Amino acid sequence: MRKLVRSQTAERLKKLDREVRHVIHKPKDADAIHDLRVSIRRLRQELRIFKAWFETEDVKSMRRSLRKLMDRCAAVRNCDIAIEVLRAAGCHKQKLVAGLEKERQRTREELACKLDSWRKGDRAGSWREHVQVRHSSSQESVGEHACRLLPAMLDDLFRAGRAAARPDANHQKMHRFRLKTKRVRYTLELFEVVYAGATKQVMESLKGLQDKLGAINDCATTLEMIRLDRDAAEAVRRLADKRVSEFRMYWKKHFGPRERVRWKAVLSAADRTN
User: Fold this and answer.
1) CA distance 171 to 79
2) 221-252 b/e (C-beta count within 10 Å ≥ 16 → b)
3) Contact at 8 Å (CB) between 236 and 223?
4) In sequence order, what are the residues at sequence separation of 6 or more whose Cβ sits closer than 8 angstroms to the Cβ of residue 17?
5) How far apart are CA 21 and CA 36, in angstroms?
6) Longest dimension (CA), the chain
C-alpha cells in the first residue's frame, strides 16, 4: 500500500503541475481550466482515501491550498458554463452574455494572479519534495484494501442514485450524488492496478453518469448567475428539465439491480496478492 500511495501521489502532483502550467500559458482555454479542476479533484480524493499514510498537517495544508485554487478556477469556469448553457437553451441576449463575459475577464485575472503565486512558489514541486508518505499500521495489501473499500462505496452510490433519480428529487440531492459519483470514479482509478482492466465498463458508465449530472449542475449554476432575467431563467429551466429526464433514463438503463450485483462482484474480485 505504501508503494501505491507514493506512486499515485507523485503521479497526481505531476499532473497538477502540468495542468497549472497549461492554464498559465493558455489562460483563455476553457478546457485547460476544466482539466485543472479535474486534476485538483483527483488529488483531493487521493488525499482523502489515503489519509492514514500522510501526516495530518501536511494533508490539511494541501487541501486548504487546493480548495483556494479550485475556487478561483470555479469562478472562471462558471462564467464559461453560463455562456454555453444560455446558447444551448436558445437564449441569445447580447447584454446578458456581455455581462458574463465581463465577469469572466475579471475572474480570469484573479486566477492568473493565483497561478502566478503557485508558479513562483513551485507549490506542486514543493509538495513532491517535502510531503512524506509514512508507514501505516494496516497490513492490508492493495487488493485487500480495494475489496474492503470499493464495494461499500458502490452500495452507497446506488442508494444515493436511486434517491436522486426519484421524481421528487431536488437539485441539492442530485448535486450531492454527482459529487459522490466523482469520488467513486476517482477512487476506482487509484486501484486499477489490482483489477487488470476488469473495471473498464464500470468506469465508462460512471463517466457517462457524471456527464449527465454535470449537465444538470451546469443549468443550476447558470440559474444562480442569471436569475434576475426571467425569460433567460425560464429557458434554462426548460433545458434543465430535459437534462434531468436524460439522467433518469441513463440511470435506469445503466444502473439497474443487475448492474449493481455484477459490478459489486467485479469490485470484490481484486487481486488480493498485489
Assistant:
1) 20
2) bbbebbeebeebbebbeebbeebbeebbebbe
3) yes
4) 124, 125
5) 10
6) 62
pLDDT attached to residue 120? 85
Q: How far apart are CA 234 and CA 238, in angstroms?
A: 6
CA distances from residue 116 to 17, 23, 77, 240 in whole angstroms, order as listed: 12, 10, 18, 37
Sign of the Cα pseudo-torsion (8, 9, 12, 18, in order): negative
**Total-model pTM:** 0.91
CB within 8 Å of 135: residues ≥ 6 apart = 2, 53
Of 162, 148, 261, the closest CA to residue 202 belongs to 261
Q: Transcribe 194-246 into DSSP letters.
A: GTTTTTHHHHHHHHHHHHHHHHHHHHHHHHHHHTT-HHHHHHHHHHHHHHHHH
Residue at grid coordinates 496478492:
273
What nine digits make up the cell of 20?
497549472
**Residues of the chain scoring pLDDT < 50:** none
pLDDT digits (tens, 9 = 90+) for 237-273: 999 999 999 999 999 999 999 999 999 999 998 777 7
Domain ranges of the chain: 2-130, 142-267
pLDDT at 158: 96
User: What CATH architecture is 2-130?
Assistant: Alpha solenoid (1.40)
